[in-house]
Write a structure and sequence with these properties.
This protein has about 350 residues and is α/β, with parallel strands linked by helices. It is built from 12 helices and 13 strands. The longest helix has 19 residues.
């Protein structure tokens, strides 16, 4: 979708209140889908295939190689959407990898983040900036996008939202690189590119409340399972529709605790093997490929992660993204380490070594 069209829709959306649930709910009585705890095998899926690139090289060089396969439409003022983590978080993407990538391919880009919905070390902009220093994100500008307020983007085709509230600085960018630490998630089951954008671009006071909290509830986390997955996906759709072709996705499958990086040093110990780095211009395809690799592991390797995904009904992230037309759940997996031949998720998961904390 052209940005001029998006801007026109954005202006229309701004004529209504951004602070009440009634103002932004798409349908009168939407109902969540089902089966977010049921894994659909590749051969049971239908539709087109997208290209996903894969390397086992977990290093700055591997990150650069994966990104460069999918960087063709990234230009202008670039935001790198990254989960920068709670203080001293042990599992976030290494800073030196991100610095190497930005020095080589993303000079002049900013890391982009928003404040948290929960009270903690990233709740206010001042707290957030202190945490950024602790975690070493000091080698380039970091834009806390809701520091100066919010704006809304339309959610086209959503059932929960007509619009999503995001950090006001988001629309300052021409392109977005979604650089994601793929891992488990306490409520989402797993956190891939969809979670990174859907939660990470929603502002800390309004957008995240719309996603997480039922109106009138005292429980911040009163929305869960399939409904939560759908709300996250609709939030993501608002952002990626805004950027159109000028957004790309890189998922790093390393230090995959079942806990999100928002849990910092309290995250559950990592028991899932490291895998590699995947990239695509299709958000559904790259998240689906990561999930497929998890399921292709041996039972002892993937037990904790599969349990986390299925008990939270996190697979609804994938099926709902497909329903919304956000991408394909079938893909051509290209092995960058072996002559760019096509491989399966099972081949990508073959021969993995037990995780060792470095």
């Amino acid at each position: 979708m052209k940005k001029t069209t998006i801007i026109a829709l954005l202006c229309a959306a701004l004529t209504t209140s951004t602070t009440t649930m009634e103002a932004q709910t798409s349908n009168c009585n939407p109902q969540p889908g089902k089966d977010g705890n049921k894994y659909v095998k590749y051969e049971e899926r239908t539709g087109n295939e997208s290209v996903v690139y894969f390397t086992r090289n977990l290093s700055a060089e591997g990150l650069i190689k994966a990104y460069e396969q999918v960087s063709g439409k990234i230009s202008g003022h670039i935001g790198v959407k990254l989960h920068t983590g709670e203080p001293n978080g042990p599992n976030i993407i290494p800073r030196e990898w991100v610095k190497a990538l930005m020095d080589k391919d993303l000079r002049g880009a900013n890391i982009i983040e928003t404040n948290t919905y929960y009270e903690g070390d990233r709740y206010t902009t001042e707290q957030h900036r202190n945490t950024l220093k602790v975690n070493g994100w000091t080698f380039c500008p970091v834009d806390i996008m809701d520091e100066q307020g919010t704006t809304t983007l339309p959610v086209i085709g959503g059932k929960w939202f007509k619009k999503m509230s995001v950090g006001s600085h988001l629309t300052n960018y021409d392109s977005m690189v979604t650089l994601t630490h793929f891992k488990g998630h306490t409520m989402g089951g797993f956190g891939g590119s969809n979670k990174n954008i859907g939660i990470g671009c929603a502002d800390g006071r309004i957008g995240k409340a719309w996603i997480h909290t039922r109106q009138g509830s005292d429980d911040l986390w009163s929305i869960a399972e399939e409904e939560l997955m759908e709300r996250i996906a609709e939030s993501t759709k608002a952002t990626i529709d805004y950027f159109g072709e000028h957004v790309t996705y890189v998922n790093v499958m390393r230090n995959m605790s079942v806990s999100c990086d928002c849990e910092g040093i309290a995250a559950e110990p990592v028991v899932t093997p490291d895998v590699g780095i995947l990239s695509s211009t299709d958000i559904l395809a790259v998240d689906q490929a990561c999930v497929d690799i998890i399921y292709a592991m041996t039972a002892d390797q993937h037990k904790a992660m599969v349990e986390r995904i299925e008990t939270r009904h996190g697979l609804r992230q994938l099926s709902y993204m497909k329903e919304l037309g956000m991408g394909n759940d079938r893909y051509i997996l290209i092995d960058l380490d072996n002559g760019c031949k096509r491989i399966t998720a099972a081949e990508a998961a073959k021969g993995l070594k037990p995780f060792v904390q470095k």
